[in-house]
Structures are given as structure tokens and as C-alpha cells.
């Protein structure tokens, strides 16, 4: 028979049982975004004011396309998890559940839209031979 004290059951777990994992994921994604976003802003900044072919050629190349996709995916997951924590802290009941669903849905819609636009730019870049 295994004997677990209350402390042993609670170590490493939050109230939901996944608090530590959630905290580490949020910390890791924040650090990753802190390194990726300045690089991405430089790439976007160099294309500001350029014509459409230049922008498509820039984002059709592998590094900017992969970096943009990573920022969209990691950033929107970070947003969804962060708003979920905020909602759990301040909104309760059915309204909290509805807001969680709405925020996760918003994050996935933004992800899908951005990845579609990026894929379209890459595809057009391939057709143009860039």
C-alpha cells in the first residue's frame, strides 16, 4: 500500500494539477517570442514601402516564412493560454467558459488566417520563380 501525504500529492501541481507545466510553457514561449519577434520585425521593416513582388519574394524565402509561421503559432498559443489564466482568475461560471471558448477560437482563427496568407505568398512566390 502506497502512502502519500498531502504535501507529496501537491508538490509540482497547481489547483488544476497542471500549474507547473502551464507556467513553464508560458515562460518558454515568452523567451522564444522575445528572440523571434525582433528578428521578424527587422524582416518586416525592410519590406515596408516595397512593392508587392518584393514582399512576396521576401516571405516566399524559407527563413522569413518559417519564422513568420513560428511566431504566429507560438504567439497565438501563448495568447490563448494567457487569456485562459486571466479568465480563470477574474471570470467564473458560464461566462468564464464562454470567454475561454471565444479566446481559443479567436486564436485559432487568427492562426488559420495568417498561415493561409503566408502559404498563399509562398505559393505565389514559387509560381513567380522567386
TrEMBL record:
<keyword id="KW-0812">Transmembrane</keyword>
<dbReference type="GO" id="GO:0046872">
    <property type="term" value="F:metal ion binding"/>
</dbReference>
<dbReference type="GO" id="GO:0016020">
    <property type="term" value="C:membrane"/>
</dbReference>
<comment type="pathway">
    <text>Carbohydrate metabolism; tricarboxylic acid cycle.</text>
</comment>
<keyword id="KW-0249">Electron transport</keyword>
<comment type="subunit">
    <text>Part of an enzyme complex containing four subunits: a flavoprotein, an iron-sulfur protein, plus two membrane-anchoring proteins, SdhC and SdhD.</text>
</comment>
<dbReference type="GO" id="GO:0020037">
    <property type="term" value="F:heme binding"/>
</dbReference>
<keyword id="KW-0349">Heme</keyword>
<dbReference type="InterPro" id="IPR000701">
    <property type="entry name" value="SuccDH_FuR_B_TM-su"/>
</dbReference>
<feature type="transmembrane region" description="Helical">
    <location>
        <begin position="106"/>
        <end position="128"/>
    </location>
</feature>
<keyword id="KW-0479">Metal-binding</keyword>
<keyword id="KW-0472">Membrane</keyword>
<comment type="function">
    <text>Membrane-anchoring subunit of succinate dehydrogenase (SDH).</text>
</comment>
<keyword id="KW-1133">Transmembrane helix</keyword>
<keyword id="KW-0816">Tricarboxylic acid cycle</keyword>
<feature type="transmembrane region" description="Helical">
    <location>
        <begin position="55"/>
        <end position="74"/>
    </location>
</feature>
<keyword id="KW-0408">Iron</keyword>
<dbReference type="InterPro" id="IPR034804">
    <property type="entry name" value="SQR/QFR_C/D"/>
</dbReference>
<feature type="transmembrane region" description="Helical">
    <location>
        <begin position="23"/>
        <end position="43"/>
    </location>
</feature>
<dbReference type="Pfam" id="PF01127">
    <property type="entry name" value="Sdh_cyt"/>
</dbReference>
<keyword id="KW-0813">Transport</keyword>
<protein>
    <recommendedName>
        <fullName>Succinate dehydrogenase hydrophobic membrane anchor subunit</fullName>
    </recommendedName>
</protein>
<dbReference type="GO" id="GO:0006099">
    <property type="term" value="P:tricarboxylic acid cycle"/>
</dbReference>
<dbReference type="InterPro" id="IPR014312">
    <property type="entry name" value="Succ_DH_anchor"/>
</dbReference>
